[in-house]
């Protein structure tokens, strides 16, 4: 089994994400597919297809093999991510504001804060997935980017306001 077989070859979104910015989704998915390590527990190898959906404030990850055969499903509560989604949203808004009023020191400080929150969130995601799926640090970061772009925006009124 080579490392290349323990990877995602496709990521799709459930229709629960309709009405979203598909360009943002496509960028996040493209980055994730470009380079990733994705190892479902107890499975002999991929590559894998991942389908994401949100239901009842939970992120569902449906994993299939390359031919579409079911491998596993994992339902992940988004509650532990509320503060991180909120903080990440605020820091991104501050970044966009800072871009309009340039100041290299301010942009650098905001970017360092953004990376810190992103690292914290990706570590939490990696820990929460560990029982079902092993991912490396870079895959966890790319997956968090996608998770943030999807349910944080899709259910922002529910998640961010609680």
List the helices and strands and how they pair.
Layout: E1 8-13, H1 22-34, E2 38-40, E3 48-55, E4 58-65, E5 70-77, H2 82-100, H3 104-129, E6 133-135, H4 137-154, H5 156-159
Parallel strand pairs: 1-3
Antiparallel strand pairs: 2-6, 3-4, 4-5
Helix pairs in contact: 1-4, 2-3, 3-4
Task: Describe the protein.
With 162 residues, the chain is of the alpha+beta class. β4 and β5 form a beta hairpin. The C terminus is likely disordered. It contains 5 helices and 6 strands; from the N terminus they run βαββββααβαα. The strands form 2 sheets. The chain has a 4-stranded mixed beta sheet with strand order 1-3-4-5, covered by helices on one side. Strands 2-6 form a two-stranded antiparallel ribbon.
Briefly characterize the structure.
By secondary structure, the chain is an alpha+beta fold. It is built from 5 helices and 6 strands, in the order βαββββααβαα.
**Unreliable sequence segments:** 152-162
Structural class: alpha+beta
In spatial order, strands of the major sheet run 1-3-4-5
Note the total helix count. Answer: 5
> Rg from C-alpha positions?
16 Å
**How many beta-strand elements?**
6
Average pLDDT reading:
83
- Which descriptor suits the 3D outline? elongated
Instruction: Give the SSE order as H and E letters.
Output: EHEEEEHHEHH
Q: Helix share of residues? A: 40-55%
The first-to-last residue Cα distance is 44 Å
